[in-house]
Amino acid sequence: MPRYAMVIDVEKCVGCMACVIACKKENKVADGYFRTRVVEEVRGEFPNLRMELRSELCNHCEIAPCIDACPTRASHRAKDGTVQIDHKKCIGCKACILACPYDARYIRPDGTADKCTFCQHRLKEGKTPACVETCLGKSRIFGDLDDPESEVSKLLRTYDAAVRLEWAGTKPRVFYVNKRFPGGVLTMVEITITGTNSITFPHFEVWDWRIVLYLFLGGLAAGTLVMCSIANLRPTKTVEELAKCVRAPLIAFVMLAVGALFIILEIKAPWHLYWGYLTFQPLSLMSWGTWGVPLVLFFNALYILAVLPEEQKHYLKFEFLKRFSDRLKPRMRLIAKINFVAGIFLAIYTGILLASFLAVPLWNNATLPILFLVSALSAGAALIVIIAKDVEIKYLFTKIDVWLIVIELLLIPLYFYGLYVSSAPYKRALEPFFSFKGEYFIYTLALILIFLFLPLALRMKIGEITEFEEHGLPYQFTRAQILRMNIAAILVITGTLILRGAIVYAGQLIKLSIY
Amino acid sequence: MKWSRRDFLKVVAASGGIGVIGATQVDRLLGLGRKPEGKPVYIPTVCEMCFWRCGVMAKVVDGKVVKLDGHPAHPQSRGKLCARGHGGIGLLYDPDRLKHPLIRVGQRGEGKFKKASWDEALNYVAEKMLKIKETYGPESVALFTHGTISTYFVHLLWAYGSPNLGMPSYALCRGARDIAFKLTFGAPVGNPERVDLKNSKVIVLMGFHIGENAHNSMCQEFAEAVGKGATVIVVDPRFSTAASKAKYWLPIKPATDLALLLAWINVIITEGLYDKEYVAKYTEGFDKLAEAVKEYTPQWAEKETDIPVSLIIETARIMGKNKPSVLIHPGRHTAWYGDNTQRVRAIAILTALLGAYGRPGGIYLPPKNPLSEYGFGDFCGVPYPEHQKPEINKGPYPFTEEEGVIPEIIKATLTEKPYPIKGWLITGTNLIKSTPNQRDTIEAIKKLDLVVAVDMMPFDHVLYADVVLPECTYLERYDDIFVVKERSIGLALRQPVVNPMYDTKPGWWIAKELGVRLGLKEYFPYNDFEDFLKAKCEALGLNFEELKQKGYIEIPDTASPYIDEAFEFKFKTPSGKIELYSKQLEEAGFPSIPTYTKHEQPPQGYFRLIYGRVPVHTFSRTTNNPSLWELMKENAAWVNAKVAKKLGLKNGDYVVLVNQDGVKSNKVKLKVTERIRPDCVYVPHGFGSFSPMLKRAYLNGADDQQLITRYAVDPISGSVGMRVNFVKIEKA
Q1: Of B365, B397, B417, which one is at a domain's C-terminal end?
Q2: Which pLDDT does position A438 carry in this prediction?
Q3: What is the pLDDT of residues B64-121, one digit of tens each?
Q4: Number of domains comprising chain B
């Protein structure tokens, strides 16, 4: 099989834009979308200037992050080595868009992801891609890397070719030859691009509040499950005592189910979702979610049935559910253990989902999943404090939450510091939080709120603990005490929401690519 | 809904299939009602998205044009098309197209029309034209025209008896260049320009921004030359795309180009870098030239142009060293200042000194033309009537051509001197956007009894028309056979690739129907255009069917690009030689050798308005084209970064440009850039349409032409210099 590649001789690009539109017509690309673009990059100061004109398109990477990100194998490597999309399998989850550091992809009107195909249909007819055929400057050269006599092979032998964002390690198959200025030290001053998609330019507009709510509700449900199973697994408890904790798993279930609805609202071709269940893609976090969320919901349901007290069993409308519930009751500890694991998985999954995207420097970071895990657990503990009636439980989770908040408050600066000491795009990813500019002020504000709410909650909780340690636990809390506890808990939960919202939105502002 | 047997069978097959194929195919089966896509048909034709006229292969599926590609054999496309060529589909399927004949019901300029039948509309026009002929004489009807439709309407105008024709392509564009080349070499440089780019070792571009003006084959050859390592010298106040390919970018002070050219000539002569043998053999007046340019030293030019002496000398030496393969591009839009002809003359003289005319890498010679000329006049065989009154369109300029000086016609319409002009036919040109001083144009329109617009789109000028006649697009019609004069002679045919949409008609049909109603039937002796095309093919010794099938046929053995030293070569000038010293000019009372004239520079706080093109649009004609609009929706005014900083303006801010006469532009986005000199503002031409019928282009960006209220006419050729306006920047 051939190894198709494109070489772009930037010196010969005259900026005519014929490729941009030829591609659109050839591939019937819908209005407002582009599969290829022309970038005009100017360096220097008047009158000492230089400018590079360069067409960009899908790089058909050898190590393709978009393929890894795809939960359904819709994005796949074709036999000819190119990266292709099987539109009937694409669920429109947009993970590939966030994984691609080259802004090559967009969502077309039918909800599926789309990008350059190297004009696969033309290659089959023995033609070159439409952009190559019409390139006035013959700046685009196409051929087979395995054929040593092909023009691309010859060019790559002769000249020092570059690829875009080489350090991203994706091994692109689109090469750039600049015979005149092989390297450059001047700083870029101006960039003009013809043929951009609004989903990736000037910054990502891929995921919105629906994902924020999904991550928030998922995290909160996860934390609640973990905390609830901790409560249930305390050795001193009898089965009857445990049964009092039924509301927590029920709330977790509802929250996760609602969260899952939000992600279904966010994916653009949900009617293809069944493809997600015909495969499992271990490298795709979307695939983990596709399988994981229903599984967690399943175990969560078992949990609810197992802890359902006798007097509430009349809520179960079906006889078989009652019988099932009775049979689950003795296995409650095992189910609680499973839910502990499921909760940890879910909490950390929400962070890894973001961390898996190569093109988003703010997310693409190993601290983020731990931060999300801790903040989820902390929010879960806070929620238990609100919903629990038992004085002891409230006190226990107040204590647990204190430690979780402390860890979270340590992790956030650690997370930022890790980005700060990293390479340029990662450092720049912090810009929204620390630039204090008008358009970014909301992110600075988010950070201020987080660092206001969490310490405040911490202070209140420590106050409560000190009070109880001095006076002993009362038989019942006063209304004022409960109000104080709830306020502290709400502060924690709000902090979690702000954290996720700020990170989801701010992350999409700064891309790995330099535009 | 009727069900055919086949549909029924499809459904049966499909429902049977569901069980077998399973859910995976549900999506495909949902497309059941859709017919399978038909087989594509490829039809060759000729593009009209600009004046370059590339060969096109149109891919048609189920009666719809789905793709346009470059004709592989046509020398102007060579298998490739530019963005606009590909975007031709956007013109064809633009929902804003003129769809029916229209007759005005509101005031001129309001754009209120009623739908009319062709009969109604044509009768209306004919009646008015006959009345004007009767009252004022036929000379009182003027024609403004551009593009292929000119063939039929110029014929109509001349048959009607008026000489008053104005083509924007002459005085507002390349006129000065053609006159200068004719004066010097005895022949214009041609369309496409006879530039041997692919063999050039040095390419000099003066204000010519190839790449941004995407002349297809010229771009191809330019890129080829750049790829082969040609030294590019770009003289432009703006760092154009071409400048980015240049070894030398000379950001010249606007309006001083002639100083640089004269200094180059000076260096080349004083350093003996010219082609002595060539100059001796083929040119006349060298000694006089050498004497005349003595004063134009590089030191003098530095002060005029802002270009350092060292660079002037260095670039001149590079040209001298690489002679004769040096192309000093004569440009195309040369209507800059009041001395356009002299400036291009200097280019021609420099070309001659380097021995580059008729030599590889310079300017190649026109192909030998064995074909007989055969036009509309020949087909009908009836001579045009003599006009009784003097022609207005040539103005007082001794070297003007038939195509005319548009502002002269407008001036005559306004002043009614030497005689009134009462009817305007406007075909294929957006007169408002192509002509300087819009206020004059609009005032002149008020004097008219008849304004007719024949066009495909409701451009700005259409708002002022009494009658609008919708022409179909180039993809829907035949046109006269194109004689392609590239390195060889060839013939190309534009033919319909789909049927005309709506109630639109080809230009030849409109002209003929109007002609018949004007009593000029004998000038249009055809029913179908194929009648004419077949007759022409016969006269040219060609097979019409073969031309239809191939789209382009090259006439063999017609290329003779270079001067054959073995034979005596005669130039078509009075002396038979290249006239460095022009006796013709001297006799007409002009300097026989270009002399430098100083042009006014912008006053404090003002910038010189310069304008140009973008690769994805053709003048103001494509800004509404959905396929091209998508690539560039509005223009941006370029302002030097340091100037912007001083004025407190940021990239992307909207501003208003106000010219020296207080005319304000539409709001326009600012492009703050290092790529332009601090003393000028650059505005891509053709935007800011004020025709609300153009839903996409309407008031998008600024119209440079609106700000060009002043112009300086070149007294030799009538070329209308338009880079003489100054603007200041105000916040929008």
Answers
A1: B365
A2: 83
A3: 999 999 999 999 999 999 999 999 999 999 999 999 999 999 999 999 999 999 999 9
A4: 3
pLDDT digits (tens, 9 = 90+) for B298-335: 999 999 999 999 999 999 999 999 999 999 999 999 99
Q: Looking at the domain assignment, is residue B432 inside a domain?
A: no
Domain that holds residue B11: 1-36
- A237 — pLDDT class (breaks 50, 70, 90): low
Tens of pLDDT along A240-297?
555 556 788 999 999 999 999 999 999 999 999 999 999 999 999 999 999 999 999 9
Distance from CA of A11 to the nearest CA of B (A): 7
Does residue B641 sit at the A interface (CB-CB below 8 Å)?
Answer: yes
Cα–Cα distance, A154 to A176 (Å, whole number): 13
Q: Is A194 in Cβ contact with B632 (below 8 Å)? A: yes
In sequence order, the 6+-apart residues with CB closer than 8 A to the CB of A10 are A52, A53, A54, A139, A176, A177, A178
Identity of the residue in A14, A26, A50 whose CB atom sits nearest the CB atom of B67? A26
Please judge whether A25 and B226 are an interchain contact, meaning their C-beta atoms are less than 8 angstroms apart.
Answer: no
Average pLDDT, stretch B191-201? 97
Asked if B195 and B327 touch (Cβ cutoff 8 Å), the reply is yes
Is B20 a residue whose pLDDT tops 80? no
Res B151: pLDDT? 95
Residue type at A95?
A: A
Contacts of A20 in chain B (CB under 8 A): 83, 631
Binding-face residues of B in 224-243 toward A, CB within 8 A: 224, 226-227, 239, 241-243
Fold of A4-194: Alpha-Beta Plaits (3.30.70)
What residue segments make up the domains of chain A, in order of their start? Answer: 4-194, 209-507
| Mean pLDDT computed over every residue of chain A | 92
The contacts of residue A180 (CB under 8 Å, 6+ apart) are A11
**Contact call for A136 and B214, based on CB within 8 A:** yes
Please check whether residue B675 touches A, CB under 8 A.
yes
Please report, for the domain that includes residue B192, its CATH number: 3.40.228.10
- Poorest-confidence range of A115-119, B509-513, B564-568, B611-615? B564-568
Give residue A139's identity as a one-letter amino acid code.
Answer: S
- State whether residue A24 sits within 8 Å of chain B by CB: yes
CB of B626 less than 8 A from some CB of A: yes
**How far is the C-alpha of B215 from the C-alpha of B77, rounded, in Å?**
9
**Whether pLDDT at A314 is above 60:** yes
- For B211, the closest chain A residue by CA position comes to A14
B234 part of a folded domain: yes
Helix (H) or strand (E) holding A304: helix A285-307
Radius of gyration for the alpha carbons in chain A, expressed in angstroms and rounded? 27
**Length in residues, chain A:** 515
Q: Provide mean pLDDT across the span A400-408.
A: 95
Query: Which residue is associated with the tokens 């055969």?
Result: B374
B717 closest CA partner among B441, B431, B395, B440: B395
What values do phi and psi take at A350, rounded to 5? -60, -35
Q: Two tokens at B596?
A: 């430098």
| Beta carbons of B216 and B76 less than 8 angstroms apart | yes
pLDDT at A242: 53
Interface test with A, best of B210, B630, B677 (most A CBs within 10 A): B630
Structural domain contains residue B214? yes
Asked if residue B713 is part of any domain, the answer here is yes
Instruction: Map tokens 């395995």 to a residue.
Output: A146
Mutate to test the interface with B, among A7, A13, A14, A180 (most CBs of B within 10 A): A14
Confidence class for position B18, pLDDT limits 50, 70, 90: very low
pTM comes to 0.93
CATH class of domain segment(s) A209-507: mainly alpha
Is the Cβ of A420 closer than 8 Å to some Cβ of chain B? Answer: no
Domain boundary among B337, B365, B393: B365
* pLDDT mean across residues, chain B: 94
Q: Cβ of B68 under 8 Å from any chain A Cβ?
A: yes
Pick from B87, B642, B674: CB nearest A49? B674
